Amino acid sequence: MHNIKPDYLLRALREKIKESHLTYAQLAQQLDVPLSTLKRHLHSPAISLDKLIEYCRMVELSLDDLVKQAKLLQSQSDDLFTEIQDEVFFQFPELYDFFHTLNEFL
């Protein structure tokens, strides 16, 4: 079994938020947190488990389903990028999201 990288858990959560047709602004308002905090949490592997669970609950996503989706995403992306590309995507997660969005259209 693969160790799931936090980036894939967060990516799976962001995708579920998108599928739920919630904007980050709407979610931040429902959670009563600043939008900047929500965005930081959704792109930071240092997110606390409490926050991860709270965000999952807001989009009706169980931790089990989150892990399953993250495993799927990770298996699809394994060895897709070089170490340098991985580092750039880690430092600038919005670039990875942009790349992923472009990839959906190809």
- Work out the helix count: 7
Low-confidence stretches: none
Bulk shape = globular
N-C termini distance: 30 Å
Whole-number mean pLDDT? 88
Helix content: over 70%
Integer-rounded radius of gyration:
14 Å
Order of helices and strands: HHHHHHH
Major beta-sheet overview: none
Structural class: mainly alpha
Q: How much beta, percentage-wise?
A: under 5%
Annotation, overall tally of beta strands:
0
What does this structure look like?
The protein starts with 5 loop residues before the first helix and ends with a helix. The protein is mainly α and 106 residues long. The protein has helices at 6-19, 24-31, 35-42, 49-58, 63-77, 83-91, 93-105. It is globular and about 40 Å long. The model has no long low-confidence stretch (mean pLDDT 88). Helices cover 73% and strands 0% of the residues. Helix 1 crosses helix 5 (63-77) and helix 6 (83-91) packs across helix 7 (93-105). It contains 7 helices and no strands.
Blueprint of the fold:
Elements: H1 6-19, H2 24-31, H3 35-42, H4 49-58, H5 63-77, H6 83-91, H7 93-105
Features:
106 residues, 73% helix, 7 helices
Short account of what is shown:
The protein is mainly α and 106 residues long.
